[in-house]
Design brief:
Blueprint: H1 10-13, H2 16-37, H3 44-51, H4 56-66, H5 69-77, H6 94-130, E1 135-140, E2 143-149, H7 151-174, E3 177-178, H8 192-202, E4 205-206, H9 217-243, E5 251-252, H10 272-293, H11 304-332, E6 335-336, H12 338-343, H13 354-363, H14 368-385, H15 389-394, H16 397-402, H17 405-410, H18 421-426
Parallel strand pairs: 3-4
Antiparallel strand pairs: 1-2, 5-6
Helix pairs in contact: 2-3, 2-6, 2-8, 4-5, 6-7, 6-11, 7-9, 9-10, 9-11, 10-11, 13-14
Family: Belongs to the lyase 1 family. Adenylosuccinate lyase subfamily.
Pfam family, one: ADSL_C
Organism: Fervidobacterium pennivorans (strain DSM 9078 / Ven5)
C-alpha cells in the first residue's frame, strides 16, 4: 500500500505483527476446542497463551531458512513452550489458519468501512436538504437539458450509498466463515465438532464445503462490492470535476490555506482530490478483477491466489476506506456558488424551456408534430444566432394567439421544475 494513502485504523490491521496475532488467535481457538472435547488437557490453551511470543524479526529470519511463512510462525511462536506445544497446529494445515485469519481481518476491516459509509451517508443527506430548493440546470450528454434541484445530485448519491451499505452488510455476513478441516477439507485429522467449537469462539461459521482452502467466491463478492462503492465515489468526483470547470464553476472542492495548485501558474485551483479518487476507483475495479481470477484453482488447491491476495486484500480495504474518508471531507467542505448555479440556467437564452413551450402548444390544440417542428425550428435558429429563444417565440403570431402573455411568462420560470421535489425527498424521510 502507498503510505500516503494508508489511514488508521485500517493500516494497523495489515501489519505483519497483526497478521501473526490473528494466526495465533486461530490456533488458540482450536486448542481451546480440543480441551473442550477432551483431546488436549485442561489448561493447555492458557499455557500456550502465556508462553507464545510473537517476534516478527525471528519469524522472518526463520522463514528465510524454511521458505514457508506458517511453518516459520509455528517454529518461532512455540520456542518457549513445553509439552503443550504438541497441540499447537494439531490436525491443521496452513490454509486452515491463513484463510480463517483472513476472514477475521476482512470482517474487522469491513466493520470499519461500514462506519465510514454511515458518516458519509449523513453528510450527503445534510447537503441534499441544504440545496433541495436551489434550481440548477440539468445536463444530459453534457448539454443543458432542463432545470432541476441542485439537492437532487446529493440525494441521488445518498440513495446509491444506502444500497451500497446494504450490499456490504450482506457480504459481511457472507464472509464470516472459517475453515478448520485439514489438508484437503475432509476432516481426516480434525473433527467437524472441533471446527464448529473453534469457529464459534472466533465469531465465524464453518464454510459448508472446503478444499484445502475456502472457496474464493467470498472474496470476489466482497471486492466486487468494494468496486461498486468506489464507482459511486468516482461518480461524485466526476460531477464535481465538471462543476469546477472554469466555464461552469458552480462548485469547487476545498482549497486549503497555503495550498498551491500549480508549480507554474499561481492562479490554479485544480480538482486534485476528485481526480485522485477517480484514479483510485480504477484500482478498485482492478482488485475485483484479480479476485475473480483467483476463484479457479487447480484441484483441491494451488497457491496462484496467494501472492495476489497479499496485494489485493490490504490494498483494497485500505483504498476504499481512504476513498470514503476523503469523499466525506470533500462533501463536507464543498464550495457551492449558488448565484452561479442560478445564472447558468440562462446561458442558452431560454432554450431549456423548449419542452414547456411544446406542451403548452399541444394543450392549446396544436398537434404534437406541428408543435415540435415549430419549436425546434426556432430553437435551432437560436442555437446558431445566440438570440433569445423567449423573444423569438414571442414574435411568432401563431404562438401568441395560442398562449397568453401571462401564461407565456410562466413557461420560463425554473421553479416549475421543483414542484414534485418534495415527493422524491419523502421517500427517504425514514432512512
Amino acid at each position: 500500500m502507498v503510505e500516503r494513502y494508508a489511514l488508521e485504523p485500517l493500516k494497523s490491521l495489515w501489519t505483519l505483527k497483526a497478521q501473526y496475532e490473528r494466526w495465533l488467535e486461530v490456533e488458540l481457538a482450536v486448542v481451546e476446542a480440543y480441551e473442550q472435547v477432551g483431546i488436549a488437557p485442561k489448561g493447555t490453551a492458557e499455557e500456550i497463551r502465556k508462553k507464545a511470543f510473537i517476534d516478527v524479526d525471528d519469524i522472518l529470519a526463520t522463514e528465510q531458512v524454511v521458505d514457508h511463512d506458517v511453518i516459520a510462525f509455528i517454529k518461532s511462536v512455540t520456542k518457549n513452550m513445553g509439552d503443550e506445544a504438541r497441540y499447537f497446529h494439531y490436525g491443521l494445515t496452513s490454509s486452515d489458519v491463513v484463510d480463517t485469519a483472513n476472514s477475521l481481518v476482512l470482517i474487522r476491516a469491513t466493520d470499519i468501512i461500514l462506519e465510514s459509509m454511515e458518516k458519509l451517508r449523513l453528510v450527503l443527506y445534510e447537503k441534499a436538504l441544504q440545496y433541495k430548493t436551489l434550481p440548477t440546470i440539468g445536463r444530459t450528454h453534457g448539454v443543458h437539458a432542463e432545470p432541476t434541484s441542485f439537492g437532487l445530485k446529493f440525494l441521488s448519491w445518498y440513495a446509491e450509498l444506502l444500497r451500497d451499505i446494504e450490499r456490504l452488510k450482506r457480504v459481511r455476513e457472507e464472509i464470516a466463515v472459517g475453515k478448520l478441516s485439514g489438508a484437503v477439507g475432509n476432516y481426516a485429522n480434525i473433527s467437524p465438532e472441533v471446527e464448529k467449537i473453534a469457529l464459534e469462539k472466533l465469531g465465524l461459521k464453518p464454510t459448508p464445503v472446503a478444499t484445502q482452502v475456502i472457496s474464493r467466491d467470498y472474496i470476489a463478492h466482497l471486492l466486487a462490492t468494494f468496486a461498486i462503492i468506489a464507482g459511486l465515489i468516482e461518480r461524485i468526483a466526476i460531477e464535481i470535476r465538471h462543476l469546477q470547470r472554469t466555464e461552469v464553476l458552480e462548485a469547487m472542492e476545498p482549497f486549503k490555506e497555503g495550498q498551491r495548485g500549480s508549480s507554474a501558474m499561481p492562479h490554479k485551483k485544480n480538482p486534485i482530490l476528485c481526480e485522485r479518487l477517480t484514479g483510485m476507483a480504477r484500482l478498485m475495479r482492478s482488485y475485483a478483477q484479480v479476485a475473480f481470477e483467483n476463484m479457479a484453482l487447480w484441484h483441491e488447491r494451488d497457491i496462484s491466489h496467494s501472492s495476489a491476495e497479499r496485494y489485493i486484500l490490504p490494498d483494497s480495504t485500505m483504498t476504499i476506506y481512504y476513498m470514503l474518508e476523503k469523499a466525506r471531507y470533500l462533501i463536507e467542505n464543498l464550495r457551492v456558488f449558488e448565484e452561479k448555479v442560478k445564472k447558468n440556467i440562462d446561458i442558452t437564452q431560454g432554450l431549456v424551456y423548449s419542452q414547456r413551450i411544446l406542451l403548452a402548444l399541444v394543450e392549446a390544440g396544436m398537434s404534437r408534430e406541428e408543435a415540435y417542428t415549430l419549436v425546434q425550428k426556432y430553437a435551432l435558429e437560436c442555437w446558431e444566432t445566440g438570440e433569445s429563444f423567449k423573444e423569438r417565440l414571442r414574435s411568432d403570431e401563431k404562438i401568441s394567439q395560442l398562449i397568453t402573455e401571462e401564461k407565456f411568462e410562466e413557461l420560463f420560470k425554473p421553479d416549475y421544475y421543483l414542484k414534485n421535489i418534495d415527493k422524491i425527498y419523502e421517500r427517504f424521510e425514514k432512512k
